[in-house]
Amino acid sequence: MLGCGTMGHSIALNAAWAGLSVKMQGISDSDLEQGWTNMLKKLKVMLNNGILSDSEAAQIQENIKMTTSVEEAVREATFVIEAVPEDISIKKELFKHLDALCAPDVILASNTSGLSPTEIASETEHPERTVVTHFWNPAHLIPLVEIVRGEETSDEAVERSFHLLQQMKKKPIEVKREVPGFVGNRLQYALFREAQYLLEEGIASKEDIDDAVTYGIGRRLPVSGPFMTADMGGLDVFSAISDYLFQHLSSAEESLPTLKKLVAEQKLGDKTGEGYYKWDEAFSKEYNQKREAELIRFLKKDLGIQ
């Protein structure tokens, strides 16, 4: 596991939970210490919610070794996942280095949320073994992982990615052809674009737009995605509504003015204390814990834990 930040330490936790031996790499001892501390916090929450036993938590820690050396991290590895910053030049250089370090049968996977796997592998000698495995944050609680093919990604790389992720009790899907945003983010940002438009036009408040999702379509989405929902509602109805509604939906090609203004003012949300909402310490703690509790509830259901 290359990288021990927000995604890296969570992915390492997931792999170690599946009984795999993991080497987690960070750029410095302090970087690794922070990643380890963050992982221990997640283990504590999982313990407190009955997802893990004390012995399982101890075994997870035993399964993870830490290093600041990329060379050490990938020595004897059969599958490498990177979660370094989302910068194409950094990833291309890293994969070129990994390609030289690792035997040709080692799978090289990127956790990028939207960068092209073809471009990431463009300077390697064995591009067929490069694939994207896009985990969703928080990686230890959300089952979805998108497996994205590059132009030269082999069937074997995809199959081995599926096998590993299923071993980690994830829900992998295959993105058969790379496209900006892959699948999940395209769906997420289509919704976010329309939400921005409704707010910009004064059609509803941000609170009511959020509630329309949380207490409306959000209640169905854990059971039925868009195509299943359409089948259940009747395709004649969904086709007729599509015919008249699509022409009225936002077709904005960039973020809308309110969002641009907030970003320009460095009002970036939870991490700066203000965004669309005011994020004081109490509000931040309340909503982060609320989201985590709901994700844990779903995870326990997936795992058959009462």
From TrEMBL:
Its EC number is 1.1.1.45. The keyword NAD applies. Pfam families: 3HCDH, 3HCDH_N. Pathway: Lipid metabolism; butanoate metabolism. Keywords: Cytoplasm, NAD, Oxidoreductase, Phosphoprotein. One of its GO terms (molecular function) is L-gulonate 3-dehydrogenase activity. It is found in: Cytoplasm. The record marks H134 as: Important for catalytic activity. Belongs to the 3-hydroxyacyl-CoA dehydrogenase family. Homodimer. This is L-gulonate 3-dehydrogenase.
